[in-house]
Amino acid sequence: MASAATPGSLSFIPTSSRARSHRLASSGLRLPLRRLGFSSVAVDPLLSVHVAAKIRSFNGKGVKGVVSMAKKSVGDLTSADLKGKRVFVRADLNVPLDENQNITDDTRIRAAVPTIKHLIQNGAKVILSSHLGRPKGVTPKFSLNPLVPRLSELLGIQVVKADDCIGPEVEKQVGSLPDGGVLLLENVRFYKEEEKNDPEFAKKLASLADLYVNDAFGTAHRAHASTEGVTKFLKPSVAGFLLQKELDYLVGAVSTPKRPFAAIVGGSKVSSKIGVIESLLEKCDILLLGGGMIFTFYKAQGLSVGSSLVEEDKLSLATSLLEKAKAKGVSLLLPTDVVIADKFAPDANSKVVAASEIPDGWMGLDIGPDSVKSFNEALETTKTVIWNGPMGVFEFDKFAVGTEAVAKKLAELSGKGVTTIIGGGDSVAAVEKVGVAEVMSHISTGGGASLELLEGKELPGVLALNEATPVPV
């Protein structure tokens, strides 16, 4: 970022911590890292696929609640545990539908398939539960009926659909379900008791099954009847493969990353990312900031930001975050140049200016080409990268260049063996738009849940599951 003293230059928070310097000891980094203030780098323990099982051995300054995230997995259950058993599976099948009720993106359905297939192949009777949208009572347009054909196709069996999620008719359908069969319950949010985590409603859901599997990471940050309440009545309650993978990557990335570890945080407001930034400052070596939030940081340093988005009540916070980065020895990078526009519209007039030279009446809507180059140089040195939030208003093609450049760079790095984690929300949309989603190490299925986990918050839907059996390490 340009500073008031040195307009147009890229300002880095220097690596001043002796402890950080010691940790970043010797390993032949490329020249750009030295320019970022790194003297040298060392490799920390590799990110383990089984982080969740081994996390108890982590003694560093890890994410709050990390210890409680080591949970028993569906993979720990044997055929003897599953054959003939009724298994209540909470999945996140909240997929987008068009006006004709056609699925426009089946990512979440495909993500749920491995757990369901494992259960049916081991002879379990799967009772599948999900929500769709935010219905107010029974709302036909939010019925799960449109999901049945795609689910059946992906699973290779005919999925049976119930017209409710509790009651005598559902119980009858469960009773006639064969081993290896799947019954999809109706939208669990048709009942207001779901989001209220009503114990009686949870008990009715639980009465349908013998054991519980939570594979809905996207709702794991909510204590609802189908994500938390049912665990009080069903044992064992375990994590599905998708939920386990989310914990392995997201918890693992912030506790035992392969270093150097970089975090890219974007989005429109500092306020929505405060917890993530503060948490990552405890863990990462490099922090890149983009999106609308950067203008609050610029103004906090005395720069003119024109009519760019600024959170006036967060100026002191921005200053304190910069100071915290310096104290922690984190190299914090803000863009040196920005793409500005004369209005917030896809057809706005635009131009590139230095971050210190935004004129009155103009607003910043993307990071500029010099910033893309500097960010790429910094990322080139990394071994683990987490990305959460766009670099600009990427919904408008004219202002999507910075975000798409980050997506392409991470795809390139992933091909070189760098662990790349896309932390939900708009970042996922960006890598899918660019067509590089398949090459990323991990793409999170939960926006809000990803954010809360990266912030170090405990997720109710995860805490409610049975603890994993400790594994000697």
Automatic annotation (TrEMBL):
Keywords, alphabetical: ATP-binding, Calvin cycle, Chloroplast, Kinase, Magnesium, Metal-binding, Nucleotide-binding, Plastid, Transferase, Transit peptide
GO molecular function: ADP binding; ATP binding; metal ion binding; phosphoglycerate kinase activity; protein kinase activity
Associated pathway: Carbohydrate biosynthesis; Calvin cycle
Entry binding sites for ATP: 273, 364, 395, 424-427
Cofactor: Mg(2+)
Protein name in UniProt: Phosphoglycerate kinase
Subunit structure: Monomer.
GO biological process: galactolipid biosynthetic process; gluconeogenesis; glycolytic process; reductive pentose-phosphate cycle; thylakoid membrane organization
Main subcellular location of this protein, as a coarse class: plastid
